[in-house]
Design brief:
2 copies of one chain form a homodimer. Chain A is of the alpha/beta class and about 290 residues long. The first copy, chain A, has helices at about 15-25, 35-45, 50-55, 70-75, 80-85, 100-110, 125-130, 140-150, 165-195, 200-210, 215-225, 235-250, 255-270, 280-290; strands at about 5-10, 30, 45-50, 60-65, 90-95, 115-120, 120-125, 135-140, 155-165. In chain A, helix 2 (about 35-45) links the parallel strand 2 and strand 3. In chain A, helix 9 (about 165-195) packs across helix 10, helix 9 packs across helix 13 (about 255-270) and helix 13 crosses helix 14. Chain A is globular, with a radius of gyration of 20 Å.
Chain lengths: ~290, ~290
């Protein structure tokens, strides 16, 4: 019999992911802090649950997709949390982006109750979530990933086993480092062109045809050239992710000068009150520095 | 009748470009400081010339592909230079990467002798030069580009008119800014992964399947993961290009904090004696900072 799935966290990412699971024919129970998203999913065929505990009691596999580690810890380990409603044999897949050591701690607490854990953060943004083309980075036991694979296949097109608990989060941190620097790359190139009298749209067109191409440029460059910054991926979440990367670097002796710089530029974007814009709005910080 | 072409500068880029012009059926005269490359091209059907002046006297269109602005100025404006051998109606296409204001100065000096000029720097590296898939960024008059197009089409697959004299060099500077930051992006992601126990090859594999993909990663990531840094694009040339970008930013009021940082990391790579490695060897500077 097919596994019953619970999904906790129905934001920009979790909502289309739950919808894709329903579309794939899974029985899905949902739980979310705000009720509006729950009602939307209920109308599409999901069963609402009042608390993560109640949701866990009705599920074989629980997926969490939450903003940050404190949210995951409360939803999983709190009094009305997932582990309070769990039975041995349950599988918990945390698809949030949190620090690798937080993922490891949660896996230890779950294992004590006979609950298996995977960290499975994603790349691809809300577009990838809607199209079920996410890249999913998995840490944990291979057997648990084998069990999760039919479910994850309804959410993403690339599923990679990166190593033991936390390794999925480590690779996600690497991913966020690369994307952040790609945003800076595109922003500085567009600003240099604009200040020197070349239309940013021409800069994007030429660069995407050569060695300077990036997927971020393909997806966001034309909108950036028009000054449009609808999320996509929110700047304040990317700033949080760079905090995780720098903390991981500090713990493991990596040196990331570019990441540290871009982390500060995101801090400036948030200080301007623009943390809920798309992360490509980093361009506007450089524009402001140049007096535009 | 087809235009007779002269090519000056037969290095990592100029040599395969001259070969592609011969393959396309053009009559090609060549000139180079070192004789070995001249003999190689002569064996393939090119006519050797002793000086740029002699070459210009036998050519309708002269292409220069040289390391830096002082080389271009000497080869074009020197006593035995191109302009000394030029006739009115000749077209000079400088495909070197130099500062936009140097390109503008050369265009003014050429125009005084009735010689038309295009700045037409390229992106795509030695692989792109060999495969004739370069992206060519052109500054100058549209009519001169129309005349050059059949020739440039034998060298690249994307030809973009960016604006007046110098605009091709401006967009090339933007290109080099973006590529430099993409190299830093990949290097920091790979170092963070490696220090945290994840194989850099897995990092490259996962990132290239998602939002963090870049063409540089596709082309160079696997070799970087193996510690191989055969050029490709030499680090010392990319360092020179970032100097042009920062000078242009200073002249036009752009602010490029990421570029300034990576320019210094390239300086460190050159200080280690590794300026003739591929620019992807930037990774080794970060590895050294992390004590690897």
């Amino acid at each position: 019999m097919q596994e019953r799935i619970g999904v906790i966290g129905l934001g920009l990412m979790g909502r289309p992911m739950a919808q894709n699971l329903l579309r794939a024919g899974f029985a899905v129970t949902v739980c979310n802090r705000s009720r509006a998203a729950v009602e939307l999913l209920a109308a599409a065929g999901a069963t609402p649950a009042a608390t993560p505990r109640e949701l866990a009691a009705q599920s074989d596999v629980v997926i969490t997709m939450l903003p940050d580690a404190p949210d995951v810890e409360q939803v999983v380990c709190g009094a009305n949390g997932v582990l309070a409603g769990a039975r041995p044999g349950m599988l918990l897949i945390d698809m949030s982006t949190i620090a690798p050591h937080s993922a490891q701690q949660i896996a230890v607490r779950a294992a004590a109750l006979g609950v298996a854990c995977l960290d499975a953060p994603v790349s691809g943004g809300s577009e990838g979530a809607a199209a079920a083309t996410l890249s999913i980075m998995v840490g944990g036991a291979a057997a648990d990933l084998a069990r999760a694979r039919p479910i994850l296949s309804a959410l993403g097109s690339t599923i990679t086993h990166c190593g033991d608990h936390g390794a999925g989060q480590t690779v996600k941190a690497c991913n966020q480092v690369a994307v952040a620097l790609h945003i800076a790359a595109l922003s500085e190139a567009m600003l240099l062109g604009a200040q020197s009298g070349v239309d940013p749209a021409i800069v994007v067109q030429v660069l995407s045809g050569g060695l300077a191409q990036s997927r971020f440029m393909d997806l966001r460059g034309p909108a950036m050239a028009r000054g449009e910054f609808t999320p996509g991926g929110r700047a304040r979440f990317h700033h949080k992710d760079l905090g995780i990367a720098l903390q991981l670097a500090r713990a493991n002796g990596a040196v990331l000068p570019g990441t540290a710089l871009v982390e500060q530029l995101f801090a400036a974007l948030i200080a301007r009150g623009d943390g809920d814009l798309d992360h490509s709005a980093l361009l506007t910080v450089l524009q402001a520095l140049a007096g535009r």
